[in-house]
Amino acid sequence: MFGFYRFASVCPNLKVADTAFNTAEIIRCGKLAQENGTAVTVFPELCITGYTCSDLFHQELLLKNAYGSLQKIAEAFADSDMIVAVGLPLRMFGRLYNCAAFVQRGQLIAVTPKIHLPNQREFYEKRHFNSGRDLLNSADRITWDFPGFGEVPVTNFIRSGVSSVAGCDAENAGAEICFGVELCEDLWTPMPPSGELALAGANVILNLSASDALVGKGDYRRNLVMNQSARCMAAYVYSSAGVQESTTDMVFSGHLMIAENGSMLAERKDYGRESEIIYADVDVQRLNMQRLSEGSFQDFDATPYFATAAEFGPLPEVKVLNRFICSTPFVPGNVETRDSNCREIFNIQCAGLAKRMEASHSKRAVVGLSGGLDSTLALLVIAETFKLMNRPASEILVLTMPGFGTTNRTKNNAVTMAELLGVELRTVSIKDACMQHFSDIGHDPAVLNVTYENVQARERTQILMDVANKEGGIVVGTGDLSEIALGWSTYNADHMSMYAVNCDIPKTLVRHVVAWYADRARNFIADEKTADELSAVLRDILDTPVSPELLPADANGQIAQKTESILGAYEIHDFYLYHFAKYGAEPAKLLYLAKIAFAGTYPDEELERCLKLFVRRFFTQQFKRSCIPDGPKVGTISLSPRADWRMPSDASFSDWLES
Predict the structure, then answer these.
(1) pLDDT, tens only, 567-623
(2) Nearest 5°: CA angle at 159, between 158 and 163?
């Protein structure tokens, strides 16, 4: 369903060298995973025998029993589409290998021998096993005739034997899944096999491991898995041996992890004494789409890997998604991370503006201040930028331009904020100029339509541009990423500036950056009284409804034109923007994810309305994005035609609207 597959990582209870006990426990845990709709279940390295058998690996009985156990495990899942990955010692070509074996539908579909054998300090695998490097690096397809299974590929690359769109199921189109295999030490080397496996097309890396527990090693191991999953733009399923291994020289913690592109989806590392299973639903379709637009996956010749690959059959599909879907993907849930991101965003904005001011030899920065969120953040950035350049705040020119919809609340906040920051403030009413323009073009000012609104927006921009020319300055733009995505601006009015400092920050994140500054105003303003007063103003701005204030206020002098009452909540549109622009998610998937993320917050009808509006406006407003001013990229999503996003201004959106 929409490219989601469920993975399980298991640490089974075991007895060293007791293959019968271990096999029964592997089957029991595998059945639990099967009942939970799992596509692939991964067990630890050498789990059939136990990793710590040492010289018992040279005992004929142990090797025979281990192979018999593999046959029993295959038979136990003969009626299942789930792939089961287990570890055991296997003899091939007159040598003994530490292998991962993969069974599906009662068949042994692939065997992967371990490449890198640790042979230092507490490890001495070369005493017992041979490296599989020569077998896996062969240009020819290598197979081995395993009794009861027949010829089986010896490979670390396993791809779907089903049609390229996962059985031609439209919902799963683009969700091709391919496995790369590592065993424990392979991950710890300077060049893990998963790097090339990912370049060849493996989007899920499976690691059967037996990594011992040492002080600090768990965190280091966790970082390795997360970083490798990010570097490979892949999911990484890691299963390690547990505390029931021999403790003669080592203890194993049973560390289990499932990561996806740098994010940990599920983890367990608590030295449990009973069998443990973790699950995670991996978005394979998202990984594939991200690889198309990011990274260098198209530059690698995968022919040798496909020539030697094993194949698997159809996998179980996720019926009910068991995965957290964040409703604010641009905003980290962790407070510490969010604050750190806000700080870095603010620093990027300031550094970008400082460079532009210096390069253009501008005498002043000119900005229109409405008392709303976006212009507030822009002014905060300008004020800090001038400190960085050791220039006085008096060189910052702020204009308030009250019009027909300006309320006392927003105007007073704008004036107070400017005064507290010590900038030059000018007030220029646009009412008379707009009335004159209405007369010039023959528009009845009683008709409150788009002409009525846009005349005001263009009058304000004309004033800002002309004043900037007169003062030898640049106009700093205030529009944010959400407005750019939806085209919620007037063409050649607030759509235009000389440098747009907020252009890469969505509305949901603008709010947090302003709040972050408000919490730390004393760090930016030397005088504590002034800082506290500024913080209070910022908090009132945060509480003010988002509005362009282009329509008259209501009878009580309050804002009548509320953007989110027209467009829908910005958090919904930002959610759609994130998954649409970053991962290329189709509308049906956007709605599916939104219903999970916003369950109990917005009714399905509102989510559907907002999605149709988002699609329509995103396509029809591209002409504005094709000629937006420069501005700093601060996140992974940018809609600048010079950075991340290029599309025809006249593309049809009918397919997206109807899907």
Answers:
(1) 999 999 999 999 999 999 999 999 999 999 999 999 999 999 999 999 999 999 999
(2) 160
DSSP state of 546: P
Least confident of 140-149, 500-509, 514-523: 140-149
Distance CA 84, CA 103 (A): 5
pLDDT at 164 over 50: no
The DSSP code sequence of 207-242 is EEE-PBP-TTHHHHHHHHHHHHHHHHTSEEEEEE--
Instruction: Determine the Cα–Cα distance for residues 412 and 536; give it in Å rounded to an integer.
Output: 13
Please list the active-site residues: 45, 114, 184
Dist CA 496 CA 465 (whole Å):
10
Mapped onto helix, strand or coil, the DSSP state of residue 536 is helix
Beta bridge partners of 112: 100
State the Cα–Cα distance between residues 644 and 624, nearest whole angstrom.
15
Give dist(CA 645, CA 651) in Å, integer.
14
Q: What are phi and psi of 299, to 5 degrees?
A: -95, 5
Do the Cβ atoms of 523 and 498 come closer than 8 Å? no
Residues contacting residue 499 through CB under 8 Å, at least 6 positions apart: 352, 353, 356, 474, 475, 476, 477, 629, 630, 631
pLDDT in tens, 222-271: 999 999 999 999 999 999 998 888 888 888 889 999 999 999 999 998 78
Do 559 and 464 meet the contact criterion of CB atoms below 8 Å apart?
no
Checking if the pLDDT of 167 tops 80, the result is no
- The pTM for the full model equals 0.91
Output the CA–CA distances (angstroms, integers) from residue 530 to 58, 350, 436, in the order listed: 78, 22, 40
Q: Which two tokens stand for residue 327?
A: 């409703």
Class of residue 324 by CB neighbours under 10 A (exposed 0-12, middle 13-18, buried 19+):
exposed
Q: How far is residue 477's CA from residue 629's CA, in Å, rounded to a whole number? A: 8
Which residue is it, tokens 């205030």?
A: 478
Average confidence score pLDDT of the chain: 92
Give CA torsion, residues 493, 495, 501, 506, to 10 deg.
Answer: 140
Q: Is 540 exposed, middle or buried (0-12, 13-18, 19+ CB in 10 A)?
A: middle
Predicted local distance difference test score (pLDDT) of residue 174: 58
